[in-house]
Amino acid sequence: MAEVAALHNAPAAIAEDDALARLRLIRTPSIGPVSFRQLLARFGTAAAAIEALPSLVRRGGGRVPAVTDKQAAEREMAAVTRAGARYLFLGTPDYPPLLAELSDAPPVLTIRGDLSLATRDTVAMVGARNASAASCRFARGLAQEITDEGAVVVSGLARGIDTAAHEGAGAATIGVIAGGIDVAYPPENARLQARIADEALLVAEMPPGTEPRARHFPHRNRIIAALSLGTVVIEAAPRSGSLITARLAGEAGREVMAVPGHPSDPRAQGCNGLIRDGAVLIQTAADIIEQIRPIDLRARVRSPLTGWGAPPPEDASDADRHRVTDLLGPVPVGVDELVRQSALAPAVVQMVLLELELGGRLERHAAGRVSLC
Fold it and tell me: Which residues are bridge partners to 364 per DSSP?
């Protein structure tokens, strides 16, 4: 169809049949970002992975899922085109290298705007939705000062601090949303979201037409954290989404920073707690720039060009499956610990875990941990 062909005329786009196969695979129930990545590493293409899926699921003890059909993938592609957006697939040259470092990096993103913003020094700014007026004003000014230094502000287009950060950053901002690329949320930010799509960069992981749900926001938060060299939290209650973003940033090896608040303000408890636990105290934009741009570039623990990698999964025997499965339980355990205790090759352990996940028997957790469902 013409709309589908036009979509893939963009630079660094993959072939149309491969794009269709990748969409079919990632939109299939039980296929997550980690299993998608491992399937491609094992079988080379999404089409080959789809063919192998029934056998893998049966080995994992599950029912074979209905793979998303070609027509559904074509309809999604047409909707993306109508929204004025385009796809960005993991493994293509334009995919942001910082985001590609995640073991659960989104296999496909939908974007509108200037993708080059994701290649510059990036700072995530997050905080309370019910933020105080003083903190919103501070966030707006801080974002403007950060962009004056040539950096880019990343946030989630939520009410409060996120909105203030986007407004202060102007055209040097990346908005990551929890719903589809064509869905504005919250509704009062529809104009801001449209401006970011036109003048800056708008990013979505969910298919077009998806209304954001509570379960989508942690997925959005991991993208915000991973796209950025550091995350700044401005006002956050305990157990808030902003603290989840900060935790994900720390787990990804990024800088975690926080603006202190008055001890009597409940909205300051999260930030003060982060600082107590080791986050960098931030008062000015210069404090932030100092953290993301060390004087000696060798001081950076990780290289932004070093992607996440794991050995391609290898076929496992029945004995191997029993050995790994017997080590699993309802309590999350690190994959490296499973490798150590099973005395199996990492690639074999990865294959057993992949089969269990496809069979609906394995749940993946943060920091590379897994458990039986």
Answer: 370
* Distance, CA of 365 to CA of 180 (rounded, Å): 24
Helix-, strand-, coil-residue percentages of the chain, each rounded to 5: 50, 15, 40
Q: Distance between the two ends of the chain, CA-based, in angstroms?
A: 41
Handedness of CA 168, 171, 175, 180 (dihedral sign): positive
Burial of 54 (0-12, 13-18, 19+ CB in 10 A): middle
pLDDT tens digits for range 308-358 = 455 667 788 889 999 999 999 999 999 999 999 999 999 999 999 999 999
β-pair type (201-204, 230-234): unpaired
Domains by residue range for the chain, with CATH: 2-88 (no CATH), 115-299 (3.40.50.450), 318-372 (1.10.10.10)
Please, what is the Cα angle at 93 between 249 and 354, to 5 degrees? Answer: 60
What is the pTM assigned to this prediction?
0.88
Mean pLDDT, rounded, for 295-316? 55
How far apart, in whole angstroms, are the C-alpha atoms of residue 71 and residue 73? 5
Question: What is the number of H-type helices and E-type strands within the chain?
Answer: 16, 12
pLDDT in tens, 99-155: 999 989 999 999 999 999 999 999 999 999 999 999 999 999 999 999 999 999 999
Of 267-276, 282-291, 292-301, 354-363, minimum mean pLDDT range: 292-301
Alpha carbons 48 and 27: distance in angstroms, whole number: 16
Segment holding 86, helix H or strand E: strand 86-89
User: Residue 80: which of 221, 213, 203 has the closest Cα?
Assistant: 203
Q: Which among 127, 126, 139, 131 has a CA at the least distance from the CA of 168?
A: 139
